Amino acid sequence: MAGVNPTSRKEPSMKHHVLGLAAVAVAGAFALPSGASASALSDARALAKLDCAQERAEDPIEFRLAYGTGHRAIVRCVRVELRKAALDCREDRLEDPAEYRAEYGGSGRAAFHRCLRDKVG
Q1: Could you tell me the maximum CA-CA distance found in the chain, to the nearest angstrom?
Q2: How far apart are CA 49 and CA 104, in angstroms?
Q3: Distance CA 56, CA 61 (A)
Q4: I need a surface site. Which of 41, 43, 46, 56 has the fewest CB within 10 A?
Q5: Each residue of 7-46: b (16+ CB within 10 Å) or e?
Q6: What pLDDT, in 10s, does the model give residues 23-47?
């Protein structure tokens, strides 16, 4: 660009650096859980999506009545499937906590996500 001195650009102030670091910290705090837990949850969603697509293919009229049409219908179906699985997992955890821990490797978030994956799949 003619007439622009490349050395006249201002360096970012300390305020910009601090705001950038704060944004990174906040983004890290809201990130998905790491490791197997995030994988198990995404696996459960993928399995629910496949189940919903199969349900729509088998009985399109019933599916349309239950969930509507378009992409949002699949999203609604997945949400319902995951909620049903979550209720089943919570019930299993309350009925026999020792068996739940043995089967899913604990009683925390990662174990709950593994349970979801098993219930949906």
Answers
A1: 76
A2: 22
A3: 8
A4: 46
A5: eeeeeeeeeeeeeeeeeeeeeeeeeeeeeebebbbebbbe
A6: 433 333 333 344 455 688 888 999 9
Assigned token pair, 26:
């906040």
The three-state (H, E, C) secondary structure of the chain, written as one string = CCCCCHHHCCCCCHHHHHHHHHHHHHHHHCCCCCCHHHHHHHHHHHHHHHHHHHHHHHCHHHHHHHHCCCHHHHHHHHHHHHHHHHHHHHHHHHHCHHHHHHHHCCCCHHHHHHHHHHHHC
The identity of residue 10, as a single letter, is K
Task: State which amino acid sits at residue 38.
Answer: A
Torsion angle of C-alpha atoms 110, 115, 117, 118, degrees rounded to 10: 150
Tokens for 63?
Answer: 């599916």
